[in-house]
Write a structure and sequence with these properties.
The protein is an alpha/beta fold. The chain has 12 helices and 13 strands. Strand 9 and strand 10 form a beta hairpin.
Length: 383
């Protein structure tokens, strides 16, 4: 049970960069430092040109190795254009997106008409359902997005990535995010006197890229590309590599989780380079050097609820300071199991009353909670 508790280059040329050597894409279960061999990729962005100035070199890398890439832009992006063209800019942006996608080797592009600059005002489930429909139509092996920090501070970027991850989680798909290395984000902030550029989150890895097609794709945006000296500067600083990180891994892309006996009742769990120790209390014969497996089970449920609650608050630009989940549970027998879990989500001050129902609904549908309502098939065998 979950409850809420109050408490400039020319338009025909681009800065020269060094062309790197290429590398082969790796297969399923590959180390984090290599791209997955997906036969198809769905790139979800907020605006036309995000796929070029942001994801362009990675889209090109996937396409060069045979992946069928679909680019889905949730808004027409007309709000942020510097084009002198008068009137309705949507047809122009649609044509630019199509041209850029073709240069990058994308099989197709899709343009939605959600309000540019106001994605956070669109009901989240509508965006998730839309992306889920695209997943069902194009059957990608994984999703490619901008890092959850938004890269340059635009809320639309944060929202687009958040809903893409939720849609992917519904069907167990992997999500790979692109972002700025910390040194590049720092340099851009220093050169612009701002704090809007955010570095990629933890666990990122570098992949070499060829920027030729990315630069050409960016130029399809004509006046915007010519005026965006900051965008060209970003490409210059990035050089011949991109930083990526896994936001989630589906079964085909997961590295094995290994549980190894250490001593006594103590086991070490290796997860993506992290080690978690489980043990038993001294009263039960253990050395109490870590939580019990049962405690980790309850903790995974509670932390998943907290994660989904925080994402809801972020989407609606609400402060998450003070957010916490208080948990109690009881054991049951025949068979031995966790019989009941009670969670109270302590809501940060300042969350308006009209957002509480949505927050509770979001928290109650976290991945772990859903897995309890629709339990997975579990196979245990000896080897």
């Amino acid at each position: 049970m979950t409850t809420l508790n109050p408490a400039p280059p020319s338009p025909t040329s681009a800065p020269a960069t060094t062309t790197p050597s290429t590398r082969s894409l790796a297969g399923p279960g590959v180390p984090a430092g290599e791209l997955p061999r997906w036969s198809s990729v769905l790139a979800v962005v907020a605006h036309p040109d995000d796929e070029s100035l942001g994801l362009g070199a990675v889209i090109d890398a996937f396409a060069r190795h045979g992946a069928e890439v679909t680019v889905l832009s949730l808004t027409p992006g007309a709000r942020y254009t510097d084009s002198p063209v008068a009137g309705d800019l949507v047809p122009l942006r649609r044509a630019q997106l199509a041209a850029a996608g073709a240069v990058l080797g994308a099989a197709r592009v899709e343009l939605r008409d959600y309000p540019d600059g106001h994605l956070d005002e669109v009901a989240g489930h509508l965006l998730v359902d839309d992306i889920a429909g695209a997943i069902d139509t194009w059957a990608p092996g994984g999703l490619l997005v901008l890092d959850p920090g938004g890269v340059n501070g635009r809320t639309d970027h944060v929202v687009a990535t958040g809903v893409a991850v939720e849609a992917a989680a519904r069907v167990g798909l992997s999500v790979l995010a692109w972002g700025l290395p910390p040194d590049v984000a720092t340099t851009l902030n220093e050169e612009t006197g701002s704090t809007t550029f955010t570095p990629i989150g933890p666990g990122s890895f570098a992949v070499p890229v060829d920027r030729e097609r990315q630069r050409l794709a960016t130029l399809t945006y004509a006046h915007d590309a010519a005026a965006d000296t900051l965008g060209w500067r970003r490409l210059e600083l990035l050089g011949d590599a991109e930083r990526l990180r896994w936001l989630r891994r589906g079964p085909a892309d997961q590295t094995p989780m290994l549980v190894t006996h250490d001593a006594g009742d103590r086991f070490a769990i290796e997860i993506r380079g992290h080690t978690v120790v489980v043990d038993q209390p001294e009263a039960l014969g253990g050395d109490d050097e870590g939580p019990t497996p049962t405690e980790l089970f309850v903790a995974s449920l509670a932390s998943c609820v907290g994660f989904y609650a925080r994402r809801y608050l972020a989407r609606h630009r609400l402060d998450a300071t003070g957010l916490r989940v208080e948990v109690a549970w009881d054991m049951a027998t025949k068979p031995a199991r966790v019989g009941e879990v009670t969670m109270r989500v302590v809501v940060p001050a300042g969350v308006p009353a009209e957002r509480r129902a949505g927050l509770l609904a979001q928290a109650s549908h976290c991945t772990v909670h859903n897995s309890l309502h629709q339990p997975p098939e579990v196979a245990i065998e000896l080897t």
